[in-house]
Amino acid sequence: MRVLFTLGDPYLPQRSGGAQSSTDQLVRALLAEGHSAAVLSGLEGGGWVELYSRLQRRVLRRHYAVDRARGYPVFRTWDPRDAGEVIRRFRPHVAVVQNDNTGRALALARSFEAEGIAVVFYFRNVDFEDIGGDPASVRSAAYIANSRFTATSCRTAFGIRPRVIPPLVESALYRTESSRENVTFINPVPVKGLEIALGVAGHCPDIPFVFQESWPLSPERRAALEARLADLPNVRPQGRTADMKAVYGKARFVLAPSLWQEAWGRVATEAQFCGLPVIGSSRGGLPEAIGPGGLIVDAEAPLAAWVAAVRRLWDDPAEYERLAIQARAHAGRPEIQGRQQLAAFLDVLRATVSRGVSRASARTAHLLAMALLLV
C-alpha cells in the first residue's frame, strides 16, 4: 500500500514530540514491510528545512516542498489543508489523518475524501476542539485511538468507536542498561508539570535531577528556566537530543507530573523498555501507559505527595527493585510489541481501502445499470 500520514504541526526535525516520533517509527516499520509511506506536515520558520522549502517552492512554483532527509518523502507547507497537489504526486491508497492543535485535521480528511482516498483518523490527543469539526461527518473514515482513555473520549464526544492501537515505540532505540544516577524529567514546560518538578527538586537537594528538553524552548522560556534553576544546584538542564539511550542510560527513574490530559504517555513506555519505573500523574491515559511499573500520584495532590513518591523510590532499594521488575514486565506486554501493533494497524488500513474499493465498484455498477436503462 501507499500510505500518507498527515500532521498539521511541523514534523521532524523542526518539531519533536510523541506524535512525530510515533509517526516516524510507524513509517519506518511500513517501509521495512515493503509498503510506501510519506508524511504531509506543517512548516515553521527557521533553520535549513524552512530555507530549503522556501527555495524549492519558489523555483518549482509548488504549494508544497518535499525532502527525503529522513529516508522517505516529507511534504511540508505553511497551511496543509488542501492535499490535492500531494495526492497527485504521491498517489496514496489511504491517508492517516492525525489530530493536532492546528484545527486542520477535518479539512484535510475532507480533502482526501473528495479525491476518493480512503481516510483513517488516528487520535493521538483528546483536544477535540482543535480538530475543526466532527470527524464522524467523514462517513467513509475508520478510526484508531492510541489508548483506551482516548477511545472512550472519542465515543463520548462523537459516538465513534476507534480501534485501540498504542503508539509504536521501537524498543531498540531506547532499551539500555542504566547507571541509575538521577531522576529524569522530560519536557520541562508548564503543561508537563514543570512547577511540580521544580518543587520536588527543591525539597530533595540531595537527589540529582536532569531536566531534559523535548519541545523546543524559545530563548525567552529557556532564559526563564535557567533563572529558576540557578537556585537548584542539584538540577542539570539538557538540550534536545535524538539519542534517548544516553538520557535513559543515566536515569534511576522518570518523573512525569503532567497537568495535561495525556492521551498516552510515550516517555513511560520508553523508560520501561529500560526497566525504569515512572512516577506519573493521574491525567488521561498516563496511568494506562505506566501500569504496575511505577507510581501514580493524583494530579490534584499537594507537592508533599510528589516528594514522598520520589523519596520512596530513591531511598528504598527494595521498593525500587520491585517496581523496576514490574516496569520491565509491563514493557513486555503484547499490545505494545511492534509487530503486533503494525499488524493491527495494517488490518485497519486494508479494511478501509477495501471498503472504498467496494463502494467505488458499487457506484460504477449503478452508473452502468442506469446507462443501460437509458439505452
In words, what does this structure look like?
- The protein is globular and about 60 Å long.
- Helix 6 (194-203) packs across helix 11.
- Helix 6 links the parallel strand 9 (182-186) and strand 10 (209-212).
- The strands form two sheets. The chain has an eight-stranded mixed sheet, sandwiched between helices. It has a six-stranded parallel sheet with strand order 11-10-9-12-13-14, sandwiched between helices.
- Helices cover 43% and strands 18% of the residues.
- The protein has two domains: 2-167 and 337-368, Rossmann fold, CATH 3.40.50.2000; 171-330, Glycogen Phosphorylase B (Rossmann fold, 3-Layer(aba) Sandwich), CATH 3.40.50.2000.
- It has helices at 18-32, 47-60, 84-90, 105-114, 148-158, 194-203, 219-229, 244-248, 266-273, 286-290, 303-315, 317-330, 338-374, and strands at 2-10, 36-42, 65-67, 74-76, 94-98, 118-123, 142-145, 163-164, 182-186, 209-212, 235-238, 251-256, 278-281, 294-297.
- The protein is of the alpha/beta class and 375 residues long.
- It starts with a strand and ends with a helix.
Query: How many distinct beta strands?
Result: 14
Which descriptor suits the 3D outline? globular
- CATH topology name of the largest domain, in short, is Rossmann fold
> What is the SS-derived class?
alpha/beta
Characterize the main sheet. Answer: 8 strands, mixed
CATH homology superfamily of the largest domain: Glycogen Phosphorylase B
Q: Tally the helices.
A: 13
* Integer average pLDDT: 91
Distance between the termini: 39 Å
Q: What is the radius of gyration computed over CA atoms, rounded to a whole number of angstroms?
A: 22 Å
CATH architecture of the largest domain: 3-Layer(aba) Sandwich
Protein name: Glycosyl transferase, group 1
GO molecular function, one term: glycosyltransferase activity
Pfam family, one: Glyco_transf_4
InterPro entries: Glyco_trans_4-like_N (IPR028098)
